[in-house]
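User: Quick sanity check before I run a bigger batch. Here is a single chain. Can you write out its predicted 3D structure?
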Amino acid sequence: MPPHQSRRTMIADLKGRGPKSAVLCGYIRRIRQTKSTTFVVLHDRSGTIQVVADPALIKGAGLRAESALEVEGLAREDPRAPGGIEFDAAEIRVLNQAADDLPFNSVSRLDDLSPELVINYRPLAMRTERGGAIFQIEAALAQGFRAALIKRGFTEIFSSKIVANATEGGTNLFPIRYFDRAAYLAQSPQLYKEYGVAAFERVFETAHVYRAEPHASSRHLCEYYSLDLEMGFIEGVRDLIELEREILSEIFAEIRARFDKALALFDAYLPELDGAPTWTFDDCLARLRAAHGRDDLTDDLDPAAERQLCAIAEKECGVAAVFVTAFPLASRPFYTHPAADGAHAEGFDLLLRGVEVTTGGKRLHRRADLDAALQSRGINRSGFENHLRMFDFGMPPHGGLAIGLERLTCQVLGLKNIREATAYPRDLNRLQP
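Assistant: Done. Predicted structure follows.
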């Protein structure tokens, strides 16, 4: 038997085809009535069209904004209509009537609504032009990451999110009961990425990770989506920085081309990263001291410093982004490879528009060095026996990075709060919907 053919036509497919009978399905954005005509603005995933109907046709239908509708009729070109096409309705069927007491609708301005209300009614918020664009662009960022890495010979992996030990040490773990023993939600796929390198040389994963951080800030979540990669046979951290320059510039160019109209809704920033400088942590401290008189940072950057450094980079280099390298080794995870001086890390952060969006670095690849790093930090190595065993297989020099997708989305669109780029945020206070 031939495959099922839906009789539905997408709104975008009507353009340029002249008069055409069609069946449209979508939801109602607006209704406007005159004595002789009813105008219904109908929207589907491909676009919006104005439906023209005789009032008698819809009498008693109780049409209401946001209701799901099926309309059968004739499309015709009309230069006066939005998009140059109108649709003359011959038959209208209400597939599901929307409630009459919705708190907002698909033409509302999200900026005028409380953030809590937007989250509680997220599907409705996504129907708005701005709300939908945020998550379409976010999806495109993730898709672009996958495509850029596949093109460069990376293999996608899928690691467990239930683990026996902390990936990166510390106490920011969510414990769970795993039958008769304790387990945790994974902070990162880091260790599994390294195992992937031992098999495939270049691997990546896109998945949720979990951090039990008791923050209530505009940039932290307890569950976020991480874009991770790991690659073998690297010489140093510069290999990773240059790879990220390439893939983000490539992704940003694609977003600019695909979403030029949607980007106009935001304070968007998708720069070429070729001009972004690379400064050591000590260089950054010197710049902060000279520009802002700061002398309070010792082993890491705070949010104010990240904003100040991006402003300095924009002034000096024309790009509000900076790769920061050579942090103090003690401030980085146990598996971080030390720099030649033994005091600094072969790692980096990417600051974009005032916020850290990437952390990466070269890793220790010899078992003896990992064992020594665990002991020097007072980490019980018994929980890492399985991990250490993986380094008996001739693990090559390797490194990788992780990008927080929601943070990246916020920074490229100029959003004020990471929850705007998170469909259903999990933070200190929210567990529903």
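The chain has a mean pLDDT of 92.

User: Great, the batch can go ahead then.
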